């Protein structure tokens, strides 16, 4: 019997992407979708590309929860805590694509999101769902905090180096470039075609909300308190995040050693593709898929590791990873429904 | 047991797209790929997006033919006739994505392609593989001429009107706009990013090779000899063809009647999505999929039908339709492996 | 002494483009700009590209009118009639980039814009400002209706053929493709980057407001009442309109004759570049400039003239042409300030 | 009397851009153009956007040199040294857009370009033409090494901080993103539209040839030997380079102090636009112009200065700066012909 899936916030971009992938998932079926903005409308009216494939109507949240075994919530930050509590009480799995459960420290949550933990016990039940790094913690959990988009690619690029002590955890710099879908479906001047097209800029340099989440992951891996400099940029493409990560190589560590440790670290990970020397991670090669491509570059002149990762912000950075988490907690092969071939063009 | 598939010309764009779709086809497996330019190389070296999904090596044509039940040939025009003969002799199905078998008239083939029919009997065995229009003819055949990209979308937009006599077959105008992948993988000045980006132009106005092929289809449907004016344009996007087709509505035919005939004509066709009044076919909504979206517009002031179709030139216009033909000749459900959800963005 | 220019609606796209061009016009200076939405703001706050070049503050309409010799109004349709009256009363030239004075027939204006002529005498004083076709009428006028974007390129492509009787005025089809700036600066779902990028569609097929305006021009040139089929499309580029125009060639008219008449017709027109046989008009080649490139193609099989024009919708289709009109009515060389080199990339 | 300008390598992108700008320069005229690949062809045949504006024919190098007062050479690296000697002997000014004279150290030139200094005396006569930093050195010179594209934007972003000792010169990281025109006009797989569009990747991480040139400038400014980590990326846009530069702030230096020093440093520089706090440099705002926009961001959590610059790689990064250098050595106002308004879209 298939897993019954409910999607709350189905008409946002992450919701739409959950639909796209779940429609061909062999072990899950979408049982209900919900949207505040489009209640009563068919999803295919909002996204005509889904015509004849998903003509389901958007229902209320309660209807969606009632019918399903697992709830994906793709909502603006701050709206998931009560929903998670509701699902938890009903014994339903809850996978949150928002930020409400990502930060372990309530202080950090207050500082960066101006919110508070409504139910501290529930937060303890929640787990940070980055499978390649924390798979064992995820298996038994029912409330999953799916990582943010920037916070998946950059940590995956740095994880082996940080965990194995190959680089200094001081002075790490993460220069990320994201496609426009990361900003969501709502039109704004900044996403108006003529003003974004043929443009490129940084934004929230040193002050983006994903900073503490990346630091939390790197700190957990290294056992030290890590502070990073994080600067995101907006790319004139629909999808993809490329993160160029800079870290000083520790004395005595060689290029060959770095490669060997990365290979060892990721050797069983289907979704991580460690590229060969001379290759460059490119968002072109992972579009629409759950892959994270990583390329390694050592600047011997300054003894700097440049680790570059490419993910699809809407798949490995959102919907795909959420489904990967679902697969884990329901005991399925992690790849189920996620062997999506990235188109060559 | 799965159908064993061979792809000759696997490293071109149509070949690469065959690989993308066949990798998730439940009833077929790629048994061999061949490429003259990249013999001995892995496909994933040519297209890094396929890394870990298709690391097969490119072999010779003979190796590919030997191992397989069906051969897809995605070759430059003129190279398929001998190959088809070879496959036919060995009792293997042959699906040609090139032009060698598309035109029934050798005179037309001489005029437009400057070639000749090497084996006239073989040409009689071949069939034009546009399933929605000529499905019954395809079923028993083993040599399939897969239509060109422009020659799928435009005829599908006009077919019901032409077949049912709703419009005059005189003075039909087809104004098509294609994404760049239609020009293939070989770099040229015209496809050099800075010179194509932010540009748009017509090319080969009134003299494109797909003209006689479209005329052949419309003539077959109408029972008359149809001549059209066909003007293709190059769009600065990767994929998709939008064809805006103009035809004079015959006296007495109403807008309602046109819609009704279209609905009737396509009512069982999964891959044709007839849009509602007020909607516009958009290449954005069919990308990566085998769908053909059609919108109908009647200009009452001039009594003109404007039928607009959108297809992915690489899927319904090439690889997807080829696989649809394979499904037909192997007795599979036509949709097998082709229920690809077009991404919402 | 320089002409004192006021721009009302300076923060819209047409307004911004007027500023861009006028800033380097040797015989005019921007004396005042006005904007309802951004009153009190500097233009460079709205468009940071103008920083240090145009840091003028947006004033009220009245302040703008008072200071200036000529007023350009780039306002939503319906807001120009009273303004024109006000300028006329004060003896100031008025160049309207909106639609209020474009249609000579009040019936047409009612039908397509749902408006009426507030002051019929003022409408008689106004002139339709398409210099290459109606230059002599413009010289003495002080109220100029600057043509819409689609209504410049398509008529220029067809004018010689229609005026000289080379083609039938029945059954003319105009298939136009416009860049996104044509839809203005206000964000909307349709101009949201991820939903427009890699997309292409027709809109308002057979029912766009520019239809009667094109017909008015072609009727005036031919001396007959011309009806056209007009279908605009939205291109994923910032700028440019390509219009592919189809007309049946009259019996006995040759390809050579057509070319000769076009050459004769446009021989003194700096802004019209008639391309050679084999060349294709491309929006890439006229970006940011006031040129209209025209290429001619004859489909001998169906005896159809395909005339293709490319203009920058924001320059020859709006601000540039408006300044060309200003040059005419102020007795300057028409090219003054408008010899803008279209970048090669 | 106007300066007579010759352009050698006029059909490459930098050459074409020199033409674009010089065509409207009030004090210079293009007297001859030269191209090996297109000798005998009109420039407007190579770049149809220049039709009727520059229909000059490409001549030999010698013809170009003979006629002109100043020669711009936009050639592949290695071809300029002999040409410079020839011009020098004839008493003609020589402005090299290639790399032959950029590096002061012959060892560096050998290491990074695998070349040698043919005439060491001539190299001593040459000067590095980055006016905002080294204007006084340029005035009297006749052989100008125009900086490379990456090597203009990044040093301008860092110059005040490095010169005034506000940041450590250890551990500087420069993460640059360039538009495609930086790779030139020759088609290649990497610049083939379908493979670049919707893609983004780093290349030559830590090993790009512009590294020693940036280091040379920063070393000269700081008086110390500076080593940097430099990683360029390829953006799917035509024009522009955004450089995100990271440097550790020296103890005791405040955010306010940094801003003040930048303001002081650049207060008389027309082409440098120092943005206000909260604004972000964007390549969208400097396209087609000679401006360098700089935004400053201080990450107080890690005490890091993030200085971001945006230039048009083809203007301030090539042709525009070359003309700026010409203006300097001919005693003209530096802005002459270079007050180009960057379009708002």
Map the helices and strands.
The structure is a homotetramer of 345-residue chains.
Chain A: E1 3-8, H1 13-22, E2 28-34, H2 43-46, E3 58-59, H3 61-67, E4 70-73, H4 81-89, E5 93-96, H5 106-113, H6 120-125, E6 126-128, H7 131-138, E7 143-145, H8 150-163, E8 172-178, H9 193-196, E9 201-202, H10 210-222, E10 228-234, E11 241-248, H11 255-265, E12 272-274, E13 292-299, E14 304-311, H12 319-329
Parallel strand pairs in A: 1-2, 1-4, 2-3, 4-5, 5-7, 6-7, 8-10, 12-13
Antiparallel strand pairs in A: 8-11, 9-10, 11-14, 13-14
Description:
Four copies of one chain form a homotetramer. Chain A has twelve helices and 14 strands. In chain A, strand 13 and strand 14 form a beta hairpin. Chain A has helices at 13-22, 43-46, 61-67, 81-89, 106-113, 120-125, 131-138, 150-163, 193-196, 210-222, 255-265, 319-329, and strands at residues 3-8, 28-34, 58-59, 70-73, 93-96, 126-128, 143-145, 172-178, 201-202, 228-234, 241-248, 272-274, 292-299, 304-311. The first copy, chain A, is globular. Chain A folds into two domains: 3-147 and 317-329, 3-Layer(aba) Sandwich (Rossmann fold); 150-311, 2-Layer Sandwich (Dihydrodipicolinate Reductase, domain 2). In chain A, 30% of the residues lie in helices and 21% in strands. A seven-stranded parallel beta sheet of chain A has the order 3-2-1-4-5-7-6, with helices on both faces. A seven-stranded mixed beta sheet of chain A has the order 9-10-8-11-14-13-12, covered by helices on one side. The first copy, chain A, has 345 residues and is α/β, with parallel strands linked by helices. At the A-D interface, strand 8, helix 9, strand 9, strand 10 and strand 11 of A face strand 8, helix 9, strand 9, strand 10 and strand 11 of D.
């Amino acid at each position: 019997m298939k897993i019954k899936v409910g999607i709350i916030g189905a008409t946002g971009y992450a919701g739409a992407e959950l639909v796209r992938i779940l429609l061909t998932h062999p072990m899950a079926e979408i049982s209900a979708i919900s949207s505040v903005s489009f209640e009563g409308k068919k999803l295919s009216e909002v996204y005509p590309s889904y015509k004849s494939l998903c003509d389901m109507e958007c229902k209320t949240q309660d209807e969606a929860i009632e019918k399903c075994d697992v709830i994906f919530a793709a909502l603006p930050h701050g709206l998931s805590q009560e929903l998670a509590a509701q699902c938890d009480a009903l014994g339903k799995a809850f996978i949150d694509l928002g930020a409400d459960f990502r930060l372990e420290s309530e202080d950090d949550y207050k500082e960066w999101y101006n919110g508070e933990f409504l139910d501290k016990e529930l937060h303890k039940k929640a787990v940070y769902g980055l499978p390649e790094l924390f798979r064992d913690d995820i298996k038994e959990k029912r409330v999953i905090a799916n990582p943010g988009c920037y916070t998946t690619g950059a940590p995956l690029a740095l994880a082996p180096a940080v965990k194995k002590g190959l680089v200094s955890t001081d002075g790490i710099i993460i220069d990320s470039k994201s496609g426009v879908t990361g900003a969501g479906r709502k039109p704004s001047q900044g996403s108006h075609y003529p003003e974004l097209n043929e443009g490129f800029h940084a934004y929230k340099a040193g002050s983006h909300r994903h900073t503490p989440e990346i630091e939390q992951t790197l700190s957990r891996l290294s056992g030290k308190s890590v502070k990073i400099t994080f600067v995101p940029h907006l790319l004139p493409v629909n999808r993809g995040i490329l993160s160029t990560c800079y870290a000083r190589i520790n004395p005595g560590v060689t290029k060959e050693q770095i490669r060997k440790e990365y290979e060892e670290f990721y050797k069983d990970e289907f979704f991580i593709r460690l590229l060969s020397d001379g290759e460059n991670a490119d968002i072109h090669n992972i579009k629409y898929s759950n892959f994270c491509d990583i390329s390694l570059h050592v600047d011997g002149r300054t003894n700097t590791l440049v680790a570059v990762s490419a993910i699809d912000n809407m798949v490995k950075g959102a919907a795909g990873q959420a489904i990967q988490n679902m697969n884990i907690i329901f005991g399925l092969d992690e790849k189920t429904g996620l062997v999506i071939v990235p188109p060559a063009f």
